[in-house]
Amino acid sequence: MPSDIPPPLARSPHEQLIVYAIRITDQDIESNPEFEGLPDIGATLCLAYSISSFWPTARHGIVTIRGKGDYRIDECAVVLADNSTREAMNVPNPEQLARIQETLRTDRKPRWYRLTC
Q1: What's the DSSP call for residue 4?
Q2: Whose CB has fewer CB within 10 Å in the chain, the N or C terminal residue?
Q3: pLDDT in tens, 9-27
Q4: Backbone torsions φ then ψ of 43, nearest 5 degrees
Q5: What is the distance between the alpha carbons of residues 61 and 41, in angstroms, rounded to a whole number?
Q6: What are the pLDDT digits (tens) for 72-99?
Q7: Angle 29-110-100 (CA atoms, 0-180°, nearest 5)?
Q8: Source organism's superkingdom (predicted)?
Q9: Using CA of residue 41, residue 47, residue 50, residue 51, what is the dihedral sign?
């Protein structure tokens, strides 16, 4: 499911988006006392907001990390880009990515995922 290869542009506004995102795990959330009592998606929204001053297209979402048929595993993610338009497909350069990872307190690299919601 996840990929390091950029997808083609979406052919229509109704096509499922492919997003460039950093997965946020339960461990990421549980290790941060700021997020105590927040649902995972709420904590992910806070993380996306924390990088929005220098990566304005950041938002939160739920991505499919594994799936086959009806079987699917979805996780929260900070979305950095998507395949809706050429402009939206801009991904961070290495320096920007390092700053994003530092702010999110992760060394996990972004990958392309199917956006669930």
Answers
A1: S
A2: C
A3: 888 877 788 999 999 988 8
A4: -65, -40
A5: 8
A6: 678 899 999 999 988 889 999 999 999 9
A7: 65
A8: Eukaryota
A9: negative
